[in-house]
Amino acid sequence: MSERTPTLPALTPAPATEIGSIRMATGWGIRDPQRFWALLAEASKLVDPGVFIGDNMFVWMRNMSALDDQAFMASWKANATNPSDQAILWRRHVLCTAAYHAIQLDGAFVECGTLFGTGVKTVVDYFGQANFDKEFWAYDTFDTNPVAGHQFDGQEQGLFEKVQARFSGYPQVRLVKGLLPESLNGQSPERIALLHLDLNDADFELAVLDVLFDRMVPGGMLVLDDYEWSGVYRQQKIREDAWFEARRYRVIPLPTGQGLVIKR
Ligand SMILES: C[S@@+](CC[C@H](N)C(=O)[O-])C[C@H]1O[C@@H](n2cnc3c(N)ncnc32)[C@H](O)[C@@H]1O
Fold first, then answer.
1. Euclidean distance between CA atoms 95 and 89, whole angstroms
2. Class of the 70-262 domain?
3. 145 CB near ligand 1 (under 6 Å)
4. Residue 4's pLDDT is what?
5. What is the sign, positive or negative, of the torsion defined by CA atoms of 137, 143, 148, 150?
6. Taking burial as the number of CB atoms within 10 A of a residue's CB, which of 3, 15, 22, 32 is the most buried?
7. Low-confidence ranges of the chain (pLDDT < 50)
8. Tens digit of pLDDT for each residue in 89-110?
């Protein structure tokens, strides 16, 4: 592995005593939202600080490292444009800290399932556009969603042009419009340091893994956005477990709902 020494975001030392908390009333799979959020508001007053509420998590007495990471918070605030994006703060911090590791390796960054580009932009802005010295390949059909029942508000004709405009001034970001895995043909990197898979569909994710996993460099980080989510996402875990087991890997399940794999 050749040495890379990109400029990295400075560590903000965590204060010894003050612990932040953040509460975002956005979650999924809640049957009686009014009662649920009222009970949660009450419960969160009964626990010690270091509270995170959002993205289907209620935890307390955590260090809340994301809130102390000033470069991350600046990037997250600048890029999270809707309540769902805001609620997934912890997931974004996992992605950015994985990127901190991966930017020091050879190989490009890749995201499969880019939608509005918020994940990609949060990562690049974490380092600062001028400091981000890699290619970041970002794949999506953009204007339509090929996964039945997963169309997002704003995913419509013209989205691709909007995402292109969002990345004007970011020559490192290579947006590829088309259906995966076919859209990888002839327009994908040979060496990958960070792979973020976020397609919400087991067949598509496995088809992408078949092509890209072997291109990941040793130490490369794979973040599976939906691996530890149940409900309609459960098939991804079941099928991906079998795919990784055959290669003697085990996905590290994260309480954010993500899964993490470190390439050997
Ligand atoms: C959850 S969104 C991605 C969110 C994004 N990663 C972020 O961080 O904001 C999932 C995206 O995957 C895209 N997608 C799903 N299957 C795909 C496929 N086979 N080819 C290309 N895009 C696909 C959908 O169009 C959708 O935009």
1. 10
2. alpha beta
3. yes
4. 87
5. positive
6. 22
7. none
8. 999 999 999 999 999 999 999 9
In one-letter notation, the amino acid at residue 130 is A
* CA contacts within 13 A on the Cβ side of 1: 18
Residue 168 Cα to ligand 1 midpoint, Å, equals 21
Q: State the pLDDT at residue 81.
A: 84
Nearest atom of ligand 1 to the alpha carbon of 122: 8
Q: Tell me, what's the pLDDT at 17? A: 87
Q: Given this model, what pLDDT does residue 129 score?
A: 98
Between CA 183 and CA 181 the distance in angstroms is 6
pLDDT at 2: 57
64-77 pLDDT tens trace: 999 999 999 999 99
Dist. CA 259–CA 250, nearest whole Å: 10
Report the distance separating Cα 76 and Cα 72, nearest Å. Answer: 6
140 lines ligand 1 (CB under 6 A): yes
Q: Is 199 close to ligand 1, i.e. is its CB under 6 Å away?
A: yes
Query: Environment class of residue 77 by beta-carbon count within 10 Å: exposed (0-12), middle (13-18) or buried (19+)?
Result: exposed
- C-alpha angle with apex 168: 10 to 7, nearest 5 degrees? 20
CA distance 157 to 9: 36
